[in-house]
Amino acid sequence: MNTKALIGVLVFLLFITWSIKGFAKTAEATTTVNIRSAPSTSAKILGVFPKGFKAQVLTSSGGWVKISYDGIVGYVKADYIKLTKDAKVSNVVKSSATSKQTVAQMPTATVLKDNARVRSDKSTSSKILKTLSKGSKVYILSREQNGWIKVKTADGVVGYMAYYLLKMSSTSSTKMSSRGGYDRENEVAYNGTLADRILEFAKNFLGVRYRYGGSSPSTGFDCSGFVQYVFRNFGIRLERTAADMAASNGVRISPSELKPGDLVFFDTDGGRNYINHVGIYIGNGQYIHASSARRCVTISNLTSKYGTSFMMAKRVIR
């Protein structure tokens, strides 16, 4: 092969590589789906791809898609995901190419706190691109992994913001309730809007398998690992075990004062002398938790077996 031909081949390969990187495919789960070791429903389950979350697409064939999600590489059924093409990375940080008509059609959100940070990636250690004041408006581009929202500011900066910093507009696909309140009876502050966001996020993991010691949706949760994971995504730090949460986190409330987002604690051994289980109250006598009995994240009634071993409740959303 002569030099010109070799250069031509190299240029072609570089173009292909650039194109793949610039327009990589992304998969978004339309329902929580198992990640398997091979393209077969009988293959080993490596983890879970939760509803509403995104993953990198590696290959697709025969009704199966190979993805990379949260450190796991495996296969998911194509029926349970939707594929999109990401824009070039170089366009992510700032772009003025969006037309007024397109911007007008985007869902919006209001910033809830001063000095709210727009970051370059889905991590609190990533670069801060911009800080926004309370009441600022942003456009919602997509919902990302682990409680992050991809946004576009009024002056065209595109980046990521933590979910709890934003109140979605009624036109947003991630619509939230606008109710809030204050518990005047016992003078314990209660942020109903934040509670709604936390519970919506928690419900994404319904069906994720139970795993003792687990603290990740890709590998499974135990009860306290699930609760800690959910609240951590909204800037609320909790202890790792149910007993330590009960001892150290939040303000104790009576069962009659329970509101959505409060923590409920149990002694499932029946002795009623030690707390070994925790869940998140969702209202109407129900709570969401990682159940060792049902082997997954599920919703139960306080009148169920766990409910008969109810010990106490605490409020951590303030």
Describe the structure in your own words.
With about 325 residues, the chain is α+β, with helices and mostly antiparallel strands. The protein has 3 domains: about 15-85, SH3 Domains (SH3 type barrels), CATH 2.30.30.40; about 90-170, SH3 type barrels, CATH 2.30.30.40; about 180-315, endopeptidase fold (from Nostoc punctiforme), CATH 3.90.1720.10. It contains 5 helices and 24 strands. A 6-stranded antiparallel β-sheet has the order 19-24-20-21-22-23. It has a 5-stranded antiparallel β-sheet with strand order 6-5-4-1-7, with no helix packed on it. It has a 5-stranded antiparallel β-sheet with strand order 13-12-11-8-14, with no helix packed on it. The model is unreliable at about 15-25, about 85-100 and about 170-190 (pLDDT under 50).
Characterize this entry briefly.
The chain has 318 residues and is an alpha+beta fold.
Secondary structure: elements and pairs:
Layout (H helix, E strand, L loop, with lengths): L2 H20 L2 E5 L3 E4 L8 E5 L4 E8 L2 E6 L2 E6 L3 E5 L14 H6 L2 E4 L4 E4 L8 E5 L4 E7 L4 E6 L4 E5 L3 E3 L12 E3 L4 E3 L1 H12 L11 E2 L3 E2 L1 H10 L9 H7 L2 E3 L9 E4 L10 E7 L2 E6 L4 E6 L8 E6 L3
